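In the lab's daily routine, each protein ends up as an entry in a very long ledger. A line of letters takes care of the sequence, but it says nothing directly about the fold. The three-dimensional part falls to structure tokens, numbers that each stand for a local backbone shape. The outcome of that step, for a single protein, is printed below.
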Amino acid sequence: MSTLLWILFSFLCGALPFSIWISQLAGADPRNVGDRNPGATNALKAGGWKPGLAVLLLDVSKAAAPVGLAYQLFGLRGFGMLAVALAPMLGHAYSPFLHFKGGKALATTLGVWIGLTFWDVPLVALAGVVFWFLLLKNSGWTVLLTLLGMGAYLIWFRPESLLLQVLGAQAVLLLWKHRFDLRQNPLARFTARQEKA
């Protein structure tokens, strides 16, 4: 399979709007709740834990599968692999099935790292997301600080050019999709507590 076909395949996999399809089976629409993005979090809010979990697993898988096949099985490397790794996130964030609108690409980001590294970087990412979100309750700053932690891990333990390039490209997309959250004060909840006290 040529690199261009891998990129297209990866993009189309990422573009599959599972959050809409699964939620509709439960009689809900994730675009009517939360931040109105078609993703796993809003599928959970709209339809409950079963649709939410199903969407999360499918959104992770739709990135892990093409990236893992291209990287692990077919040995694709270089700029072509970078494009394949970014493609499912772009497909999810700007899905042609949803008039080029989409979610914030967090689950697909995790899927990309599963495809590239199996378990270690995904565990670092999950630990960072859980820690920072519990502390700050702000998804934008959670993403930013998690990306910094992932970068530190890669530089220290896996200083591979392709992996660092993938993280850099992901950071551009993720920070753009979370730009409104990043405008909020990450310490607002702590300031509010002090004012109440």
